[in-house]
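Deliverable D5.2: sample structural annotation.
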Amino acid sequence: MRHGWTAWARRLGVGMWMALGAMLLSGCASVEYRSPKLQAQTDGAVVIRVLPNVQSSSLYFKNWQALEIARLPGLDDSHSDGKEKVYSIAPTTVGASRSALYAGSLPPGHYRFVKFSAMQCGAMCVQSWMGVNQKFSRFEVKAGQITDLGVLVQTAGEDSRSSLLTHAPKGGDALTPELVRELLPDIAPLLRQPTLGWREATVPPSMGSMQRLSITRSWGFASPHEDEAGSFLYGSANGVVGRWSPPWKRQSFDVGERVAIDAVLVTPAGDWIAGGEYSVVKLSKDRGATWNNLRGQLPLGLVVDLTVWRDEVLLTMLKGGKDVQVYRAPAGTDQWKLASSHPMDINWFFDVQGATPHSALVSDTLVTTVPGRQLAVLDLPTGRDDLRKLPGAAQMFSASADGVLRCRCISTIKVDPYESRDLGQTWQESTASRFMLMPTFKDKSIGVAFKGGFFSPSKFTYTRDGGNTWTETTEAPVFFNQLFFSRDGRKAYAVSLQGIMWVTDDDGESWDRVQ
């Protein structure tokens, strides 16, 4: 299940962002915008990724604003007038689900961060600036060179008003050269020269330990997948695969990359596979102790789904922010072959902006949403790939074991639930409430769902007749965005964005919080 509620939130946010942008442009003439394109022969460039390791990111839309940096005075050159000069650089989010990649050309000099766009106030946040302490790490820009600052991770602090900002002490990131070549071609020629990093003398001595702390606090519970021991593997924001053994034991396994992990898989052989931002795909054959690269020749994109069919692994990705692609490879190998590719076609006003694809395996068929309003149907034995219409822009999508496809789709303005029993050839309106999120089914009859309240309390619901009728039950104190059954079907779990988990052992009739 992918994040998202209603399209109006996205449209409202975009409109408010545009209005705010106009005000900022008219009222902040002292800040000079710099694009990645070199403006002078003496320019260098800075590249940094910002990764929000907090609960409010990856909802609706990313309210990414420009990053502001200040050139320090006191240098013996024509750019210094005794005052700080502030520059802003804009982000790109291609290939990312949480991160933003910032880059800009700059005149030579020493620099500090002033403020950046922080994911602190959730989906409806209009302005989310975070000021940076003047004692924070600093960097230098030299003519004809790239300053690669690696990844700046924002981790939630002890209270809602504080954040921990961490980075690798020396800077630099293995992904940077490819990101520059693919997304920032104007400064790609600078890769021929040695890159710079943080000014070592300005980096706090505790930065290494703080970075390790941010890894242990990796946020999120993405793509839960049960292993043979009854534990659940899941992805999280800061390059960590978690393992939760009910009722309370949790373990963390660092895959070695500072990227969001959005897809996790346990193969029949017991191997773990993790995929996420910037085409990172990692394989562990020893239960997370070590991780090997499994990317192979995959292009740059966002890995959104991993699944197993027979002796193959199927990988769904959003390539370049434009194309929905499915690859297949023998399990445990990086010999990926393209099986399906379709361009997205999103209407700015009527469709769900920022929607990502979602795949589901139904017997020998892989169905994949193609935002805005299409469904790719891949017959795996033959390789036949058909493109069918959804009843609207898919906000949420799921498939149950009996082959029923379900979506919350926006046909015009409002969101309605639909069902298909012939792999998307025809769709019918569902009897479920439009305020109910995607249901999760144990079999063709028994299912559970979460129903958001509209001027009334939110509640869990359950069905015993395949979704024809639903019965409301336990009142829910928070919003639950994920529901899933254990492999043996004895329990179902609900997880909130804040990491709160509830469980039922009677197929949804009663729920209790997991302590």
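Annotation notes: Residues 10 and 273 are 32 Å apart (CA to CA). The longest helix spans residues 7-27.
The annotation will be released with the project's public dataset once the embargo ends.
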